Amino acid sequence: MTENDKRPSMVIGYWMSDRKSQKLNWIEFGKVCRQHGYELVKLDLDKPLENQGPFAVILHKLTEIIARNDEKAIQIIDRIERYIKDHPKVLIIDPLDSVRTLLDRYKTYNVVLNTTLNNIDVFTPTFVEILSTNVKDNIKKLKNAGVTFPFICKPFVAQGTTYCHQMSVIFNERGVADCKPPCVAQSFINHNAILYKLYVVGDHYQMVERPSLKNFYASNDDRDTITFDSHSVSKSDSSSELSVLDPSESAKGSSIDPIKLHSIVKTLGSYLNMSLYGVDVVVENDTNRHAIIDINAYPGYDGFPDFFGKLIDCVMSRRAQSVCSKAYFEDSGFDTSDSSDEKKSRAKLNSINQYN
Ligand SMILES: O=P(O)(O)O[C@@H]1[C@@H](OP(=O)(O)O)[C@H](OP(=O)(O)O)[C@H](O)[C@H](OP(=O)(O)O)[C@H]1OP(=O)(O)O
Ligand SMILES: Nc1ncnc2c1ncn2[C@@H]1O[C@H](COP(=O)(O)OP(=O)(O)O)[C@@H](O)[C@H]1O
Ligand SMILES: [Mg+2]
Ligand SMILES: [Mg+2]
Question: Which residues are noted in the entry as 1D-myo-inositol 1,3,4-trisphosphate-binding (predicted)?
Answer without folding.
Answer: 20, 61, 165, 197, 296, 300
